[in-house]
Amino acid sequence: MWKEVVSNKSIEPMLKVPEVAHLLHVHSNTVRRWADQGLITAYRINRRGDRRFRREDIANFLAELNENGGNKEKGSSTHH
């Protein structure tokens, strides 16, 4: 039997990819790409590798994004 990286109890308050995409006004694939690039901290929670995001990490990401005038990455696209 395998163990999950994060326990079920700590998953509940975490956000899913579509929720983060909605908050950031970007496409879900953009959230996945940013997570893969390390721009947003994501936690893999099961064998399938579903991503979950802590609300605090997203808040920090938004704060940093606002400080940088919206330029988180070069050539970023926020199209839906």
Brief rundown of the structure:
This protein has 80 residues and is mainly alpha-helical. The chain contains 4 helices and 2 strands; from the N terminus they run αααββα.
Low-confidence stretches: 74-80
Which CATH-level-2 architecture? Orthogonal Bundle
The third-level CATH topology is Multidrug-efflux Transporter Regulator, Chain: A, Domain 2
Give the strand line-up of the largest sheet.
1-2
Could you give the distance between the termini? 39 Å
Task: Tell me the fraction of residues in β-strands, as a range.
Answer: 5-15%
Number of domains: 1
Q: H/E order of the elements?
A: HHHEEH
Question: Which structural class matches the secondary elements?
Answer: mainly alpha
Q: Oligomer, anyone?
A: single chain
How much is the average pLDDT? 82
Shape: globular
> Describe the biggest sheet?
2 strands, antiparallel
Calculate Rg over CA atoms.
Answer: 13 Å
Describe, in plain words, how this protein is organized in 3D.
This protein is mostly helical and 80 residues long. It has one domain: Multidrug-efflux Transporter Regulator, Chain: A, Domain 2. The protein has helices at residues 8-11, 17-24, 28-37, 55-67; strands spanning 43-44, 51-52. The chain has a two-stranded antiparallel sheet with strand order 1-2. A hairpin with a 6-residue loop joins strand 1 and strand 2 (51-52). The longest helix has 13 residues, at 55-67.
